[in-house]
Specification:
single chain; about 575 residues; mainly alpha; Cytochrome C Oxidase, Chain A; 15 helices
């Protein structure tokens, strides 16, 4: 218990664990909620895969489920995994827990606003789950909710499905607007004495960049969702061609947010990797400033690439060339970040601990996702691949590395700091290899299905004669086996967490010999984080953020002069 905690007045259970303003408790609330929704989204994917592997067997002419239920499951799986798993875990939970600790602050700049952001998010979660049980079922207009499908109750899950979906998304965006303001303000104003902007750990830079991208991109989608709600409830015709509206307008509004959203998820995952690689390579990050500049450029370019999602949607063909160019351009700063990570490994004293395994797995899987994205960013090839399983495989190879692998890397790395216990390394290694193998078994076959012209979002692929082949059935079955085994593999992680929370080895303040400020606090940190305000020194034996020191030693957190002393 820290000095601050020892002198604090005792508080009730509700004040301490439910309506807490402590950033660490709020981080755990986001984390638990995100994991729960991840289980829900994972189970939905299981039903989807069983349907695709067994079409036409259970329900005559269809399979395990019917068309309306299939559309609803696809819609809710995508919605949950993007908005209710990736964002609360990578952006909210990690940023809440790490930003104050990494910059030497006692808490967030606005603790009450921080608490409110979680409870608004929790309300959005309840609204989304309730939408499963309303008449007509959950929203069935796709996770992008394109009109005219989503604008008509008969084709999108009844009157209430999409309406509750829109309300839930709106509440969630409000929550993350409040959170984003907090993250940015905290990083700018509450840094420890001596810590300049270019001294901040890359994790903080990535979280702040993600928050800024979200703040600037979310407005058009909120407006677009409001117009869609008016079309459904008030009979307006913003997206109805018969009433003078244009359904393509919604696509523009959605993807102006939707593509920057990719980087809202991706950058925190990169931040995790940027903190783990130097620790387990025993050398500073390569090109600290270069990574920061590349992150800023990536954020700027993310706003001018959205229309590559619409090459076959009926937009002016003359837009294809400029948006193809900007799509290829944005791969340059992302490549700079990735090659800086790889250069960090060069001639390093690499230790393959569980966080490092997931960090390396992130790099390996994401590279394949990035390379295949070039085909979808160029109009000539996207015309063929659009809405095929090639797209499904690509975006899973792009999003699973930062979301799943990044989450597991962060969990194994910061679990000792968050809960004061070490996770079991043997179970962690088995968990990594099963996750890595079965993830690839699930999505690699889908690249080939895309090359074969297999469209996605089709409840019964065997309806099409061209897809009634043994090879298609075999590839779909492989993907289903991989998905089921991938889901079962995660039991090891939850078993490891449950066992370690009760009987795991107690964690030292700095079990990984890392050199950022959070490791100068007890494990777990007490209320107020630091006994005394940390001061950042620069030198070979004092605290020096990765990439800033002339020489790097494990003793960078020297107790006699280092930060936190």
């Amino acid at each position: 218990m820290t000095t601050a905690a020892a002198h604090a007045h005792p508080e009730s259970f509700l004040r301490t664990y439910v309506f807490s303003t402590d950033h660490k408790t709020i981080a755990k609330q986001y984390l638990v909620t995100g994991i729960f929704m991840g289980i829900v989204g994972g189970l939905l994917s299981y039903v989807i895969r069983m349907q695709l592997a067994n079409p036409g067997q259970s329900i005559p002419g269809y399979g395990v489920i019917g068309p309306q239920q299939y559309n609803a499951l696809v819609t809710m799986h995508g919605t949950i995994m993007i908005f209710w798993v990736a964002m609360p875990i990578l952006l909210a939970a990690l940023a809440n827990f790490l930003i104050p600790l990494m910059i030497g602050a006692k808490d967030m700049a606005f603790p009450r606003l921080n608490m409110m952001s979680f409870w608004v998010f929790f309300l959005s979660t309840v609204v989304l789950l309730v939408s499963f049980f309303v008449p007509g079922g959950a929203a069935a207009g796709g996770w992008t909710s394109y009109p005219p499908l989503s604008g008509t109750a008969a084709y999108s899950g009844g009157q209430w499905g999409v309406t509750l979906w829109l309300l839930a998304v709106a509440l969630e965006f409000v929550a993350f607007l409040m959170g984003g303001i907090n993250f940015i303000t905290t990083a700018i104003n509450l840094r420890a004495p001596g810590m300049r902007l270019f001294d901040m750990p890359l994790m903080v830079w990535m979280q702040v960049a993600a928050a800024v991208i979200f703040l600037f991109s979310v407005g058009p989608l909120i407006a677009g969702a409001l117009l869609l709600l008016l079309d459904r409830l008030a009979g307006t015709g913003f997206y109805a061609p018969a009433a003078g509206g244009d359904p393509i307008l919604f696509q523009h509004l959605f993807w102006f947010f939707g593509h920057p959203e990719v980087y809202v998820i991706l950058l925190p995952g990169f931040g995790v990797i940027a903190e783990i690689l130097p620790v387990f390579s025993r050398k500073p990050i390569f090109g600290y400033r270069m990574i920061v500049y590349a992150t800023i450029i990536t954020g700027i370019l993310s706003f001018i690439v959205w229309a590559h999602h619409q090459f076959i949607a009926g937009i002016d063909p003359r837009l294809a060339t400029p948006f193809s160019i900007t799509t290829i351009l944005i791969s340059v700063p992302v490549a700079v970040i990735l090659f800086s990570f790889i250069a960090t490994l060069y001639r390093g004293s690499i230790e393959l601990a569980s966080p490092m395994l997931f960090a390396l797995g992130t790099l390996a899987v994401f590279l394949l996702g990035g390379v295949t994205g070039i085909h979808l960013g160029v109009a000539a090839t996207d015309i063929y691949f659009h809405d095929t399983y090639f797209v499904v495989a690509h975006f899973h190879y792009t999003l699973i590395p930062p979301v799943a692998f990044g989450f597991f890397a962060a969990s194994y790395f910061w679990f000792p700091k968050m809960f004061g216990r070490m996770l079991n390394e043997r179970l962690a290694h088995v968990h990594f290899w099963l996750t890595f193998v079965f993830m690839n078994l699930t999505f690699l076959p889908q690249f080939k299905l895309g090359f074969m012209g297999h469209q996605r979002r089709i409840v019964t692929p065997t309806f099409f004669e061209a897809l009634r082949t043994p090879e298609v059935e075999q590839l779909q079955s492989m993907a289903t086996v991989g998905a089921v085994c991938l889901l079962l593999s995660q039991i090891l992680f939850f078993a490891n967490v449950a066992w370690s929370l009760r009987r795991g080895e107690k964690a030292a303040p700095n079990p990984w010999r890392a050199n950022t400020l959070e490791w100068t606090t007890p494990s777990p940190p007490g209320h107020g984080n630091f006994d005394t305000a940390p001061v950042v020194y620069r030198g070979p034996y004092e605290y020096s953020p990765p990439g800033r020191s002339e020489d790097w030693f494990p003793q960078n957190l020297a107790p006699e002069k280092g930060a936190g002393s």
